[in-house]
Design a protein that fits this description.
The complex is a heterodimer. By secondary structure, chain A is an alpha/beta fold. Chain A has helices at 17-32, 71-74, 79-93, 99-108, 117-122, 140-146, and strands spanning 7-12, 36-41, 112-116, 136-138, 152-156. A five-stranded parallel β-sheet of chain A has the order 4-3-2-1-5. The chains are: A alpha/beta, B mainly alpha.
């Protein structure tokens, strides 16, 4: 039996920029290695594929020990925006594309992008609210059927 | 290690990438492409020249760079070098495997 990973399925459930990038970098990295990849956007992860919101994802400054700032200070007005600006600057230095361009790269690379039907209904979204490149809106059952093959891994982010 | 490619003794690393670009020529290029199941066309050579040019200028390679290259778009790039385009194209171009994660 071959142990090679053939397909990676990511479930992005959070709207923070660091989580979105984690999913995008790994999904793109998979394609670059010749591995199939797909991302299922659910709950707050849907913000990363909403036309009006995807450019405004933020770093979590509260409840994030990795930021090394006290939670109360992290909660002050403007902290999130400041931390996000600094992180985006660092990302640009590493030639990391912004969210909209990254989604384009993923689509062009053959990575499939799916929205979760339940979350779309819950947030009262329509297909028009979501990026044009989206491959469709799926139920979790539909998504599992896409995982039904040997060498497939699912990752929840 | 030494590997015989196109009847020439070529020094490659353990992943099969050329160690010295000076040993690269079109015959070597075609042999490596064959091993990667790629049949080279003019478009492939255009991309290979672009990659070699970037390498000469010591500019890092990335998929974003390909998008901006003006030589090829990402979809075509994946079609020309299936199964890991940057990894395979750099091997054929005789330059090191890119270290970038993006």
């Amino acid at each position: 039996m071959s142990t090679k990973v053939k397909k990676m399925l990511f479930i992005l459930s959070k709207a923070t920029i660091e989580n979105a990038y984690a999913a995008f970098v790994m999904a793109n990295g998979a394609r670059m290695e010749g591995i199939e990849s797909e991302i299922f956007f659910t709950f707050f992860g849907l913000e990363a594929i909403q036309k009006k919101k995807l450019e405004h994802l933020k770093v979590a400054t509260v409840g994030n020990p990795g930021m090394h700032i006290p939670t109360m200070i992290g909660g002050l007005p403007g902290m999130e925006a400041l931390a996000t600006k600094m992180m985006k600057k660092e990302m640009e230095k590493l030639d990391m594309p912004p969210i909209d361009e990254f989604l384009e790269i993923l689509t062009d690379s053959g990575c499939k992008l799916w929205a979760c039907k339940l979350a779309v209904d819950m947030f009262h979204l329509t297909r028009e609210d979501l990026i044009d490149d989206l491959d469709g809106i799926l139920t979790i059952g539909d998504f599992y059927s896409r995982a039904d093959q040997e060498g497939c891994q699912l990752l929840f982010i | 290690m030494i590997k015989v490619i196109a009847n020439k003794e070529i020094e490659v690393n353990d992943e099969g990438y050329l160690v010295d670009f000076k040993q690269w020529d079109r015959e070597v290029c075609e042999c490596i492409a064959g091993e990667c199941n790629v049949v080279l066309t003019e478009k492939h050579y255009e991309v290979i020249e672009y990659l070699q040019e970037k390498h000469k200028k010591e500019e890092p390679l990335s998929i974003r760079g390909i998008k901006k290259s003006g030589v090829i778009n990402i979809k075509e790039f994946y079609n020309l070098f299936p199964g890991g385009p940057l990894k395979i194209s750099t091997k054929i171009a005789g330059i090191p495997k890119p270290k970038s994660c993006i």
